[in-house]
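Q: What does the assembly look like in three dimensions?
Context provided by user:
Components: four
Sequences:
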Amino acid sequence: MASKKTLLEDIARELNVSKTLVSMVINGKGDSYGISKKTQEKVLSKAGEMQYTPNMFARALRTGKSNLIGLLVADISNPFYSNIAKYVERALAEKGYNLMICSTDENIEREEKLVQLFAEQQIIDGLIVATTNTSGGFFKKERLRNFPIVFIDRYLPDIESNYVVADNYQGSFELTDLLIHKGCKNIVAFNITPSHISSLTERVRGFKDALHKYNIPFSSGNLVEISFNNIQQDVKEKLLKLLKQSAKIDAIYTLNNHIATACLNVFNELALDIKKEGIYFASFDDISLFDFVKPNIISVSQPLEQIGIEAANLALKLIDQKVNGTMEYEKVVLPTSIISRNQI
Amino acid sequence: MASKKTLLEDIARELNVSKTLVSMVINGKGDSYGISKKTQEKVLSKAGEMQYTPNMFARALRTGKSNLIGLLVADISNPFYSNIAKYVERALAEKGYNLMICSTDENIEREEKLVQLFAEQQIIDGLIVATTNTSGGFFKKERLRNFPIVFIDRYLPDIESNYVVADNYQGSFELTDLLIHKGCKNIVAFNITPSHISSLTERVRGFKDALHKYNIPFSSGNLVEISFNNIQQDVKEKLLKLLKQSAKIDAIYTLNNHIATACLNVFNELALDIKKEGIYFASFDDISLFDFVKPNIISVSQPLEQIGIEAANLALKLIDQKVNGTMEYEKVVLPTSIISRNQI
DNA sequence: CAAAAAATCTAAACATATTTAGAAAAACGT
DNA sequence: ACGTTTTTCTAAATATGTTTAGATTTTTTG
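A: Here is the predicted structure of the complete assembly.
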């Protein structure tokens, strides 16, 4: 005989009070509604005794608040995102919020469907998203414009928005700068296509600007595009071509961890010893793998924990502001750090 | 002027029908309720036109179903779990369900709080959980016993339950068997303490049984316990001691990827070349890292995708059965595979 | 064509809270 | 003791759907 769930009404009946009163007390508004201490005491203890827990749906339906935050990432199995997810979740749990994580599989349509479902439906109170979208058109929609959304990792340049990102430009600039100081003259950066997402364009810009600062010429050969759908194969081809060409290169700089991993795979497979050839290996994004592999990798590490915490807090702040009417855009850019493993 | 959300009533008013009818049609029950094709057509097209999307909370409140499944794991940033999460999510999305992922931080209290919140509150229709609990006492509670729960990775031996796990015993047995065939006589397994979770005890059992099969003596020295709270330091100490001792060991077998990673860190830090000393390195759990490091690692790989898919399907099946009254326990044990990188 | 049967549709109840507007009780002032 | 405040509490409305029981309308049948 599975005993039915305790309802507000059950408590009210037991105590011979109205459910209004019980609701007020349960929600900690007893004082402000002038419920006597004694009654509050009674209600609270009875509620505990009967193991009352409010029905979230009824509450959300009435209040329009679910205490749920959504997190949308391209791929939850990517350690970059799963780590951020962990920190976001921790930060939210402290404030009594729960997190709904969903992967979009780097698929714009799925992303839009999920945003629609979550945000327009008001299933969640706020959204944190590493968007796969590029145009911003979707997020301009009236109903979304008034919804608390925090972009992380990537933002959409053509719309005003709240975001928390690493300083991709500066990180890339510094990394390139470091390589140059180590004597590199012909650094080849591996980018991914399509590459309109902000983080990548910023990294490219940082790379180019650093070269420019030292008057090192940049030619199309310094930026290799890897097709997203065929990373492994494409990296292998481009890499082999590079190593065979007459113009000697002295550093490979992969613009994200996917490409880095693909390169390492190729080195492994072909037993290539980059180091012996006097080529540095550098990458944006630091993943734990880098601590174990050869060649040693110089990397730009993003402050995952900070990104997570800031994003969570910003989301909560926006939710608050929304209630209070005002709504300003906040842009958080966090510094990266170079992890320079003793190279060559 | 942010246009208000479209409600059922709005559509009903526009078309001069009852909202009952609209609801029926929207839910695809038009035929069974005998709503004429023409009317259904009208409703559907108007709903599309007005961009109607039902309010999930109102619906869930009334029906007691949210189309949400919960996934509770110890640590979403652990690639083992985040990969499973990805596959679970995909499988559920196909069936119109969404996934709420939460990390428990390997904290029993937090786990229980979340289960309470999600399951008892009926926020979710079903739960998939890699439990940190050990006793089963918590899950024996009346209200949870009638809730669709699928355990993954680990199950609780002292309660009847539904679970999807890898064949930890068999995988461990085969791995040990392989090592023995390679000539190992003194294999040392690194376990984690506390180690009452089923997956680990099964792995230990497989290890011992394989030794026994070949009449290889097992002594306490063959099983090193690493304390969970201090993995890195503890591994380092135990490892150094082992390598210095007189009795030569010929294989190290780490019982999960955490310990494996810790070992690799030590090898790295101290520039130890296990291989040169003629020691094999093996580990349960295969993570991508293993493809890149030295020494080459023989590992037991778990079928992550299958675990995810089976867990998702089982959860949905249970939800169905719950509605239909019957409720049987299903235990899915999936085969593992050995990844034998050419060692020594 | 009236009665019976079948096909369509609807009013009202319900799911479980929160909140508003106002009632009842207690305390106070003279 | 009676009107006024103040304190404490409650009935009813509300949030947005789903579902039951029954009402209308249409079609069929003798």
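Follow-up: Chain A has a mean pLDDT of 92.
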